[in-house]
Design goal:
The chain has about 240 residues and is of the alpha+beta class. The chain contains 7 helices and 5 strands, in the order H-H-H-E-H-E-H-E-E-H-H-E. The chain folds into 2 domains: about 50 residues; about 180 residues, no CATH class. The strands form 2 sheets. A 3-stranded antiparallel β-sheet has the order 3-4-5. A two-stranded antiparallel sheet has the order 1-2. A hairpin with a 2-residue loop joins strand 3 and strand 4.
Amino acid sequence: MNVIIAIVVIIILTFGIVWLIDKFVPKKLKPIINIVLWALIIFLGYITYMSIYKEIQFNQLKEKRFKVVIDRLIDIRDSQLAYKEVNGSYTDSFDKLINFVENGKVPITQRRDTLVLDEERTKAFGGVETMKTITLIDTLSFYSVKDSLFDGSDRYKNMMDVGVGKEGAKFTLKAGRLDEFAVFEASVDKEVILDDQEQYLIEKEKQVVSVDGVNGPALTVGSMNEVYTKGNWPKSYTNKE
């Protein structure tokens, strides 16, 4: 934006110089000077246009790539949630996560309350039968993680790959515990996603703070600092949520 403002100011000054020349420069020199100045105005106008056009192209490309990355982060998140349901914690290994999706089965359970004899209270009341309520969890059947989450697709086999931007780039996957709660985080730096773009546009994007943008320097799902399993993107970037 500063570059564009500077160029606009220069163009305005150039128009002022043209006017001054028209007023005070001898007629013989006017045509040459005017041609040079108009050429400068056209050149600066072109630079201004290209600066704006580059940002428009960058934003279009950014949104397209971000959508690809976000879809993959959602796959990772959904796989991690299923993994935790079976194992009680998340994993920081893509190999383990992929193997779980390939072979894992999640139980379908049913909770029910039933009355049983409370032996301790029965003894305390001199043999008078006292009942208590307990909750039983029955396993009804199992469902395949692969079929449930990916519906016949094998894209989970490449869930560690960012898929756009820097060739061969992988997501960073972390997992652990925050107090007694299991947490995980999958992320990739925006600079990786936008690897082949102008550096000043990448730096500008990494500093975004907006309700309709992806805030911060990276695309992230989950968190190692709080119990959180959502991503840092607005809803407009995906229809999966």
